[in-house]
Design goal:
The chain is of the alpha+beta class. About 50% of the residues lie in helices and about 10% in strands. It has a single domain, classed as Glutaredoxin, CATH 3.40.30. The model has no long low-confidence stretch (mean pLDDT about 95).
């Protein structure tokens, strides 16, 4: 089963969902704001792709963080920040039994999901 994690008003998520629909790929949507996220999920994604890829340092939420929160980052601190602030997670996160994809790159989707 393919699960898409994101936030409904995210433009990148909308592009990813459109691509999945056009390619007849069934998925379940998990809203990070409404449904939340677990530390175990964040740890699994971080292990799969690296916390540096998962943490969205270009977001408004990141820019609004206190400087002390942005310093001395490691996997544990990044996961803790994303757990507290789900909008720090780069979106969408797509998981299957075989792969974890972050963001939307059509070539990566074609390779991993078709």
């Amino acid at each position: 089963m393919t699960t898409v994690y994101g936030i409904k008003n995210c433009d990148t998520l909308k592009k990813a969902l459109k691509w999945l629909d056009q390619n007849n790929i069934a998925y379940q949507f998990h809203d990070l704001r409404q449904d939340g996220i677990t530390k175990a999920d964040l740890q699994q994604w971080s292990d799969a792709v690296g916390w540096e890829v998962l943490l969205n340092t270009r977001s408004t939420t990141w820019r609004q963080l206190a400087d002390k929160d942005k310093k001395d980052l490691d996997a544990n601190k990044a996961i803790s920040l994303m757990l507290t602030n789900p909008t720090l997670i780069k979106r969408p996160v797509i998981t299957t039994t075989k792969t974890t994809l972050i963001g939307f790159k059509e070539a990566d989707y074609k390779k991993a999901l078709n």
